[in-house]
Design a protein that fits this description.
Elements lengths: L4 E4 L16 H18 L3 E6 L5 H7 L8 E5 L6 E4 L4 H5 L6 E4 L16 H7 L7 E5 L14 H11 L4 E4 L2 H4 L11 H24 L6 H4 L15 E4 L20 E8 L2 E8 L14 H19 L6 H12 L12 E2 L23 E4 L13 E8 L2 H10 L1 H16 L9 E3 L16 E4 L3
Parallel strand pairs: 2-6, 4-5, 6-7
Antiparallel strand pairs: 1-15, 2-3, 3-4, 8-9, 9-10, 10-13, 11-12, 12-13, 13-14
Helix pairs in contact: 4-5, 7-11, 9-10, 11-12
């Protein structure tokens, strides 16, 4: 592999979609049927899907409805319309969900102090939905745990389920049906969902591009973050932009501090289906870096970009997660780089679904997976970090053909990004790899020279 170096590059305008792709109503019906089949295979009589404002991805995936302000519970039996338990404020939205649902008012889902005099007790609702002695119930929350009886839904719900099902029944965590890293329902995406993710990635990467090319010393963090030009899509995580000492924490929201020349800076912008992130120093060249780290590019950014390039080049349907982990470990696995989290993960409406990428993983990447190039050094030193986080998808030939036919404009953007990564950056991609970001692997180490980025080409 050639040695990575910074060079003056022209980041093309890959174009922006004007209308977000819609998920067809019939797709929700198909997803419900898939869940029912998995529930049958697992021996569940009923499946409950719990959702709140932060953890609504599985419910949204299944029904097209996500609760606002409140919590909600979807009850799925072997046949018929599922029941959706909602509070006072979500009844209207739930009734308009693309998936046909029976709306059941359960006012304990409502905000504190709101009326609670018009709904039946929880035990009566659950009993009416077929949950009783001997019933086998799978609960889908947010995460899986080592023990199947560990469930991240509220105690008032899980306790009532266990009381009703009794010693002859069972109540267990079934979230893996949704997020299993090999074949979870939300891990393998359909064409329409992938197109929606490409639209989302255009929004986040265009926002990051605006920050990179519009950043100026003297701006307050709160001013710089406006460059993201958020269009109102639901956020998958809070917006992050910090400079100076707080940038080392990575996760804070922007504040009033003025950005100074020489500052470290990090910015991340995530909406449903996509997240883009960059990090570096607010300088124009290495001479402006803090004393002692003028070798920032040679010591950190160059090896990092070389690792990213090989990671991208190794992606294809059938690749193991363990092979991807080994690439990153070989390049930047040393103590200095501090890469401790999974080098790559799956993304959906939530920013992190699961990850097949870890030491020794034999999980094979599958067609339809949406992946995140999320590989972050945490040096814990004055070298700070560098970051090139973007989204992509894996698609075999049949899925690629279906995508190109259904979404020709998005397909043109994808092909243009692939050419840019090959010709300008020297990153060769397998045909299975569909880059979704409008800043595909574009990494300027000096944030005041956004036209100078890392490359292996030439």
């Amino acid at each position: 592999m050639s040695k990575a170096r910074p060079a003056k590059l022209d980041l093309p305008d890959f174009g922006m979609p004007t209308v977000p792709p819609e998920i067809p109503a019939e797709l929700y019906t198909q997803r419900l049927a898939q869940l029912r089949q998995r529930a049958k295979d697992r021996g569940f009589d009923r499946v409950l899907v719990y959702a709140d404002r932060e953890h609504s991805a599985s419910l949204s995936y299944l029904s097209g409805f996500d609760p606002r302000f409140e919590e909600s519970v979807l009850i799925v039996g072997p046949a018929g319309e599922p029941a959706i338990l909602v509070g006072n404020e979500c009844r209207g939205m739930a009734a308009q969900a693309p998936l046909k649902l029976r709306t059941v008012l359960f006012q304990d889902m409502s905000l504190p102090g709101q009326p609670r005099d018009s709904s039946a007790p929880l035990d009566e609702i659950l009993t009416a939905e077929g949950i009783g002695p001997g019933t086998r119930v799978g609960v889908i929350g947010w995460k899986t745990y080592a023990r199947p009886d560990a469930i991240d839904a509220p105690a008032f719900l899980v306790d009532e389920l266990r009381r009703l099902t009794g010693p002859t029944g069972s109540v267990v965590n079934a979230t893996d049906m949704m997020i299993n890293a090999a074949d979870g329902l939300r891990v393998i995406n359909e064409v329409d969902q992938l197109a929606a993710f490409e639209y989302a990635s255009c929004q986040t990467s265009d926002g990051i591009r605006r920050v990179l090319f519009g950043l100026e010393p003297g701006m307050a963090e709160s001013e710089a973050v406006r460059l993201l030009n958020w269009n109102g899509m639901p956020l998958s995580c809070h917006v992050m932009l910090t400079a100076g000492p707080r940038a080392f924490l990575g996760l804070p929201s922007p504040g009033a501090r003025r950005i100074e020349r020489g500052d470290p800076l990090t910015v991340a912008f995530g909406v449903w289906g996509a997240l883009s992130c960059r990090a570096g120093f607010v300088v124009a060249d290495a001479d402006e870096l803090p004393a002692g780290i003028h070798d920032y590019v040679d010591r950190l950014v160059g090896p990092y970009f070389e690792a990213i390039a090989e990671w991208y080049g190794a992606l294809h349907v059938g690749q193991t997660g363990g092979a991807l982990w080994e690439i990153i470990d070989r390049h930047i696995g040393g103590e200095f780089f501090g890469v401790s989290l999974n080098p790559g993960h799956q993304i959906h409406l939530d920013e992190w679904v699961n990850s097949p990428v870890y030491r020794g993983s034999q999980i094979r990447l599958a067609s339809g997976m949406a992946m995140q190039c999320d590989i972050i050094p945490a040096t814990g030193t004055e070298y700070f970090t560098t970051n090139i986080e973007d989204g992509l998808a894996l698609a075999d030939e049949s899925l690629r053909q279906a995508f190109a036919a259904a979404y020709p404009d998005a397909w043109k953007r994808i092909q243009a990004r692939r050419r840019f990564m090959s010709e300008a950056l020297g990153i060769e991609l397998h045909p299975d790899v569909l880059p979704f970001s409008n800043t595909p692997a574009y990494l300027p180490p000096f944030l005041l020279r956004p036209d100078v980025a890392m490359t292996l080409a030439g």
